[in-house]
Amino acid sequence: MNIETANRLIELRKRKGLSQEELANALGISRQAVSKWERAEAGPDVDNAILLSRLYNISLDELFGNKPEYERALERMELAEDEPGEELSADDPSEEPDEAASFAESVGENAFTGVRRLVIFARADVELTASGGDKCFVTISGPKAECDKCRIFCEDDALHIETEEKQRHIFFGGRKGLHISVDLPYGMKSVEGTLIGGDIVINGVESELMNIKTGGGDIEAKELFAGEIGLSTGGGDIDIRNVNAKRAELTTGGGEIEGAGIDCAGAFSATTGGGDIEVSGRAKCVAAKSGGGDITLGFCAEGFEVKSGGGDIKITAEGTKSISAKTGGGDIRTVLRGSQGISADLASMGGASRLSVAGTRIASGRKIEMTVGDGSTRLEMRSGGGDITVEAE
């Protein structure tokens, strides 16, 4: 890996406000591995590159210092406008696009086969559902003038849907009353969408990668199965139900985050600039952060890291080994069950901190460490050989 890429990784980590140790913990790797990346002695493998792109909420191209797709599209448009090419001759077949090179192809006016990747860049509300077959169906509705601006085309196994504003007015203007509905086949490799203010609804979709961004609309997902999930909105709400993933990251600039039936084999994170967070399910580790809202979590997870600028925090956890909960002014209530050794750090600048431990046993060689409030109250229990049973409410 070259030094430019290494410097890029350092810049992204610092912009996120993470130390090498914190980044390593988030990825489930050693700090030494992160250090080698940043010294250009080694590079992240494919899995870690995907996790880094989700963590920093950027594409893989941007992760490694390449320009994002919309910037490249802008340059192509400017070049086309400044240096118009020669008019194609209808009698010259060599100038026609090679449609045979595309794996995905149209089988009707709005039906496509061979689609394994979906890329959307539009100013519209979008609905993604499962087609139940091997074909992909696209339906566009709204004002005729806006529908006419939509482009639908295939590149290899990718289906692209974009509006005229992609090249010209990416960050300006409101909604246009456009609605795009896509019925996706099973076995999708990736679903990537960038919406300029629209809402998105995802229902029953299966994909290895799900990365959706919207400038300010709401995001709703249910019955979603994916390897990596990244859902981000500039200010809308996020609501997810019955989601299965290896890793999932939810981010909103100020809306609320709600979820239930979440099953993550790896890390689950939810971040909002100021709204409430209320989520439950299973994950290896859980991170939740709100600028000032309340946070309510109910998870079977090994570790928790929870922060609120001033709201209340309530955590009901099972099988937990480590928990950190901090709030600028609200109350903290933590209920832990079925653990075999806990490291807990609870800190409230203005409210009360309450810890309830029920059915917890300290196995041989393990311990419970707890810091409550401002650190003046500390409890430590250690097992030298036998078990210690804690009964407390």
Written description of the protein model:
The chain is of the alpha/beta class. The chain has three domains: 3-63, Orthogonal Bundle (434 Repressor (Amino-terminal Domain)), CATH 1.10.260.40; 101-220, no CATH class; 264-393, no CATH class. The protein has helices at 3-15, 20-27, 31-38, 46-56, 60-63, 69-82, 144-147, 165-168; strands at residues 105-106, 111-113, 117-122, 125-130, 135-141, 151-155, 158-162, 179-184, 188-195, 200-203, 206-214, 219-233, 238-252, 257-264, 267-272, 277-282, 285-290, 295-300, 303-308, 313-318, 322-327, 332-337, 342-348, 353-358, 360-362, 367-372, 377-382, 388-390. α2 (20-27) crosses α3 (31-38).
Give the topology:
Elements: H1 3-15, H2 20-27, H3 31-38, H4 46-56, H5 60-63, H6 69-82, E1 105-106, E2 111-113, E3 117-122, E4 125-130, E5 135-141, H7 144-147, E6 151-155, E7 158-162, H8 165-168, E8 179-184, E9 188-195, E10 200-203, E11 206-214, E12 219-233, E13 238-252, E14 257-264, E15 267-272, E16 277-282, E17 285-290, E18 295-300, E19 303-308, E20 313-318, E21 322-327, E22 332-337, E23 342-348, E24 353-358, E25 360-362, E26 367-372, E27 377-382, E28 388-390
Parallel strand pairs: 3-7, 3-9, 4-8, 4-10, 9-11, 10-12, 11-12, 12-13, 13-14, 13-15, 14-16, 15-17, 16-18, 17-19, 18-20, 19-21, 20-22, 21-23, 22-24, 23-26
Antiparallel strand pairs: 1-2, 2-5, 5-8, 6-7, 25-28, 26-27
